[in-house]
Amino acid sequence: MNVYKYVALSITIFVAVIFQPTFFARLSLPGATPDLVIVVVSCWAITKGPAVGAIAGFIAGFLIDVAPPGNQLMGIASILLALIGYGIGIIGSGPSKSLLRPLVISSVAATTFFLLRTIWAVFAGNDLSLVNFSTIFLTQGIYAGGLAIFVYPTIALLDRRLGPVSRSDELRMQ
Which among 48, 61, 72, 133 has most CB atoms closer than 10 A? Predict the structure, then answer.
């Protein structure tokens, strides 16, 4: 991966972290707030593999941790998103022309991230409403799949336009 792709990765994650609380949180959608950050991380992991997925997850988690309102323990989102990005990179990377694969993987990643954060919140002493949990759990996956329809082609286009494929990627594709 060249420098331009790392700049594109950083910018897309930064924009996702900014849009998450400013734009998507203000939409009055039923259930959960669409999680653009996890969709961007999973799309980069699908496109570039486990190493870039872990880097994208860690950067996104760090920005989530330091962005206001910082009402959680520092580092939890970084660790969870880095692990999810790495796992998605292992499971979902590889050549494919299907748009269904990133849609399903992003949905599973968003619900997994929500589930892990909820488990952490329960261990930290927060209360849990089962009705609220089930509603948010279901809508989180649906919204992530809907966002992946638009985010994945954009990231794949950025990946193709910002430089040649590295030699290791060429060998992996053969």
Answer: 61
